Amino acid sequence: MGKIVGIDYGKKRIGIAFANETNKIALPYKTVDASFDMQKTIDSILMSLNQIYNEITLFVIGLPLLLSGQEGDMAKEVKKFGEKLKDKTQINVKYFDERLTSAGIEKEMKYANISRKKRSKKIDTLAATRILQGFLDLP
Predict the structure, then answer these.
(1) What is the spatial distance between Cα 93 and Cα 85, in angstroms, rounded to a whole number?
(2) Taking 90 as the threshold, does the pLDDT of residue 120 lie above it?
(3) 2 and 54 in contact (C-beta within 8 Å)?
(4) Rounded Cα distance, 117 and 100, in Å
(5) Residue spans per domain, the chain
(6) Which residues contact 118 (CB under 8 A, 6 or more apart)?
(7) CA dihedral (117, 118, 124, 130) positive or negative
(8) In the chain, is it the N or the C terminus that has fewer CB atoms within a 10 Å radius of its CB?
(9) Are 62 and 127 in contact (CB under 8 A)?
(10) C-alpha dist (Å) from residue 25 to 10, 13, 78, 81
(11) pLDDT classification of 123: cutoffs 50, 70, 90
(12) C-alpha span between 54 and 95 (Å, rounded)
């Protein structure tokens, strides 16, 4: 059974999470800075996953649909990113609806009185973890 990696794609930062050995629990991993060049961003992500790269069998990428369920500009960019990631790695990519994921995490962290600085360091990784856990919980 290979590793499943969750990705919260953003224009500034990319959150990364991966599933445990049984692919039942999503674990936060790290945040990678995004580049203006999507290929450089992909290279940075893959470099950060170097230790588990050969075990990865699936990437789950959060798809930021509009509240109406339609794809907006960011969703189209995420799909472009996913296609480039699949082309580079030959690893399957699936998308998971991530509407309001980051906003919900931000609200929870504010409620827990976590400082803005600490929130900004953790939000992307936690979003990737929530996206991946949502995918893992699918029947």
Answers:
(1) 8
(2) no
(3) no
(4) 20
(5) 3-136
(6) 109
(7) negative
(8) C
(9) yes
(10) 23, 23, 24, 25
(11) confident
(12) 21
Architecture of domain 3-136: 2-Layer Sandwich (3.30)
CB atoms within 10 A of CB 75: 18
- When pLDDT is cut at 50, 70 and 90, the band that residue 60 belongs to is very high
Q: What's the pLDDT score for residue 113?
A: 77
Tokens, residue 94 = 């699936």
pLDDT of residue 116: 75
Residue type, 94: K
Handedness of CA 57, 79, 18, 25 (dihedral sign): negative
Biggest distance spanned by C-alpha atoms of the chain = 42
